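Sorry to interrupt, but I need a hand with the structure work. Could you write out one complete protein record for me, on any chain you like? Could you add the entry underneath, on a fresh line?
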Amino acid sequence: MLKQRIITALMIGLPLLGVLFFAPPLFTVGLFAMIVLLGAWEWSGLLALRSKWYRGLYLLLVFICMAIAWRYLRESDALPLLLQVAWLWWLAVLLWIGFIPECKSKLATVLAGVLTLVPAWLSIAVLVLLNPQWVLFVLLLVISVDVGAYLCGRRYGRNKLAPRVSPGKTWEGVLGGVLSSLLVMLLGAFWFDQFSVAFFIVGLLTVVVSIVGDLSESLFKRQAGLKDSGNILPGHGGILDRIDSITAAAPVFLYGLMYLGVFVT
């Protein structure tokens, strides 16, 4: 399984790097839009919609929200407001996971998909236009958490993180993920000349929220009675299984860059 995951990750990651740094920015933005829309299709499966027409309508809803966000929020004073909504959403998800994971509602799941996918895509799009290197950084940050948590949790994991949501995740894994992400933060601080306490705080908050994003998908999959969101990626499952962490991390990270003054609307 681990070998297959590595092979699939390389097959996706290497072409993505080429697109990120050599393709026109709008092409890259469009590619990420397609990835997010594939995620939206899988999210419609979490709603237990039997008809493909209904699933298509949900896909259309997400697409329309993305188009509105691109047209009216990307270069306006409303962008920070959208990112603040994303912050509040992930705080609500954290409370949901921690206190009422058994609570489920189809309407809530519908809204959850929009609140998860749309701010994430717009944040990535803005980062692509700002500097693709920031996209690479946040991707590496999330990957380092995933790898560190997997290796450390597998070797030392004892104390369950959220047993009612994802029994396999442990606090030891979280610690391993956070520690491994510190190396990426150090490299990022050097590369972007951002040696400040605030930069590392933004990085740590991004890491924590990425873990919440991972848990959130586990929550909705468990409520839908699914093991994976799909099977499009061998060894990984579906698109959502791969982008769940970045959907949470991207808006938080972009808002952090605004706080640092790296990006101003």
Residues 197-224 form the longest helix (28 residues). The first strand starts at residue 160 and ends at 162.
